[in-house]
Amino acid sequence: MPELAPYAVGDANSRGRAQGEPPPAARSEFQRDRDRIVHSTAFRRLEYKTQVFVNHEGDLFRTRLTHSIEVAQIARTVARALRLNDDLVEAIALAHDLGHTPFGHAGQEALNDCMRDDGGFEHNLQSLRIVDRLEERYGAFDGLNLMFETREGILKHCAPAKARELGELGRRFLEDHRPSLEAQICNLADEIAYNNHDVDDGLRSGLLTLDQLSGVSLFARHMAEARAEFPAVTGRRLIHETVRRMIGAQVNDLLAESARRIAEAGVTDLAEVHRAPTLIGFTAAMHAENLELKRFLRAALYRHERVLRETDRGRRVIAELFEAFRRESRLLPQQYQPAVATGGLRAIADYIAGMTDRYAIREHRRLFAATDD
Ligand code: MG
């Protein structure tokens, strides 16, 4: 393995864990973080949480789990090529969506509405709350006691008021400092992963058509390339040949542009990365094509009537569950009642956010059996 760049995050220049622990015997500190995340309860729940398509719609669509694995794969490729810490990017990528509610963004909006007078709900902060507090696995501490830089990477964005509450971890939002290059990589790897897999899932579901996508330049260009190389190939194989080229083009563009920016900024250590402008990014041309693809997906897929109908049902399930538990906390499973007695509505939000799609639907059926459709 090539040596890490001097501005990479490593065990030696890390700000460490909130609670000191003896160093791991056969792993790096960030491998240990990755392993703690993989063994967590919240990680296993990702398998049954909606990315775009509600979990029961089909077995071949992405879930939050397969999405997170794709993000980790892309992020590791980029990190390794730039001599950055690929264990850290893997840990961040696998944890970045732990705080998502069931039913995707509609679920988050519903829960945020329910909590609007009590601090709101935001999946990004919830991911941090899970790794800092909610996981109950270790004798010595709540949460997973992760390294500072893993937590920094999970907290992608944060409003100033919340940043003040978060102390050291929130400080970069108030001082306008950048996170590590590893965290920056995960943000872009997330985008590359979902834009491309949503094209693939959109076509598979029949909600998107090749005809529509031929108007999107990134797709059209790579489909033309795939057709030129394999004139006889059609159907799913052609789609895959197109999507894999799109991912490759975006990753290679990101690598070249980021290496150029890093060299131009002349950063020599991690402190300089924090003060520099964002160094991981696409060229202007790729950024524009990426934006075009995102806009297309928003209009044609995320706001497709069939997606909205499913997620809207999810929104209703969450709002009604919240209201039922708020009115009568004894409806909650026994083990959550002490948390509600001390933590109030936040504990109800934690419980609902932790549900998988199918668990939420079952709970809803249990409470509203007579009225459910
Ligand atoms: Mg994501």
Please give a structural write-up.
With about 375 residues, this protein is mainly alpha-helical. It has a single domain, classed as Orthogonal Bundle (Hypothetical protein af1432). The chain has 19 helices and no strands. The chain has helices at about 30-40, 40-45, 65-80, 85-95, 105-115, 125-135, 150-155, 160-165, 170-175, 180-205, 210-215, 215-230, 235-265, 270-275, 285-300, 305-325, 335-345, 345-355, 355-365. α3 (about 65-80) runs antiparallel to α4 and α17 (about 335-345) crosses α18 (about 345-355). The mean pLDDT is about 95. The structure holds magnesium ion (MG). Magnesium ion (MG) binds near residues 67, 71, 96 and 97.
Outline of the structure:
With 373 residues, the chain is mainly α.
CATH topology: Hypothetical protein af1432
Percent strand equals under 5%
Give a list of the ligands. magnesium ion
| pLDDT averaged residue by residue | 94
According to DSSP, the number of beta strands is 0
Tell me the helix content.
55-70%
Order of helices and strands: HHHHHHHHHHHHHHHHHHH
Main structural class: mainly alpha
Largest sheet: none
How many structural domains does the protein architecture include?
1
Described by the principal axes of the CA atoms, the overall outline is: globular
CATH top level is Mainly Alpha
